[in-house]
Specification:
This protein is an alpha/beta fold. It has one domain: P-loop containing nucleotide triphosphate hydrolases (Rossmann fold). The chain has 7 helices and 10 strands. The protein has helices spanning 49-56, 79-86, 105-115, 121-131, 149-159, 177-194, 205-209, and strands at 7-16, 23-33, 38-42, 64-69, 72-73, 90-94, 165-169, 197-201, 213-218, 221-226. It has a 6-stranded mixed sheet with strand order 6-7-8-3-9-10. Strands 2-1-4-5 form a 4-stranded antiparallel sheet, covered by helices on one side. β4 and β5 form a beta hairpin. It starts with 6 loop residues before the first strand and ends with a strand.
Length: 229
């Protein structure tokens, strides 16, 4: 662990189109996130939350600005280099989970480990699935898993490479309240176990309040940056 921030962003912008037809989605976002922090990203639909997460996680390139993520200068990297930089550094949990339907739970978790060139992909994937309570579902396909088991596989896939950062986009959005609470507890527990920085997009006030910091976006800008009571 060093004093280098997990995320250091300065004046990030994102625009689609050019000239008078340009749509400005992000309008000068500056943000520093210390290592190990849990942060909730709030804001109405269209405020730029998902776009900001996509840029911070290396899935999208900013139009302008400076960005360093887990020690890598994302602002200067092209798409191919960003893809390589994400491996091992960043884990992502999406609302729809996006498990590969033709792969078992074990294979889904092994995939990012293999892409990162880790020689112990299978035993590490097994251990991570055991840690999320799915040691008995290793060889089940997504269609054979319950609505509560699928997000567990997604969390295991995100945390198995021991990334410096975990991004979660509405991780409880498709779940009932009881299952959602269980998944949130598990996500925070795995984050604590690995020491990763966690950034969550959510509309859930209780989930946001469980984080150490809450940032609210409005119209592509940071409207507030606060610590929950």
């Amino acid at each position: 662990m060093t004093n280098t921030p997990a995320i250091a962003a300065r004046d990030l912008t994102l625009s689609l189109g050019t000239g008078d037809a340009a749509t400005h989605i992000l309008k000068g976002i500056s943000l520093t996130v210390p290592q190990g922090q849990t942060l909730a990203l709030l804001g109405p639909s269209g405020s730029g939350k998902s776009s900001l997460m996509a840029i911070l996680s290396g899935l999208e390139q900013a139009t302008s600005g400076e960005l360093a993520v887990a020690g890598a200068n994302f602002a200067t990297l092209g798409q191919d280099d960003l893809a390589r930089a994400r491996r091992g550094r960043i884990g992502v949990v999406l609302q729809a989970f996006h498990l590969l339907p033709t792969m078992t739970a074990l294979e889904n978790v092994m995939t990012p480990l293999e892409l990162a060139g880790m020689a112990d992909a299978e035993p590490r994937a097994r251990a991570e699935l055991v840690a999320v309570g799915l040691g008995h579902r290793l060889h089940h396909y997504p269609r054979q898993l319950s609505g509560g088991a699928q997000p567990r596989v997604a969390i295991a896939r995100a945390t198995a490479p021991r990334p410096a950062l975990i991004f979660a986009d509405e991780p409880t959005g498709n779940l009932d309240a009881t299952t959602g609470a269980t998944i949130v507890e598990l996500l925070f527990a795995r984050r604590a176990e690995t020491g990763a920085t966690l950034l969550i997009i959510t509309h859930d006030a209780a989930l946001a309040a469980a984080c150490q910091r809450i940032i609210t976006l409005a119209d592509g800008q940071i409207a507030s940056d606060r610590t929950p009571k």
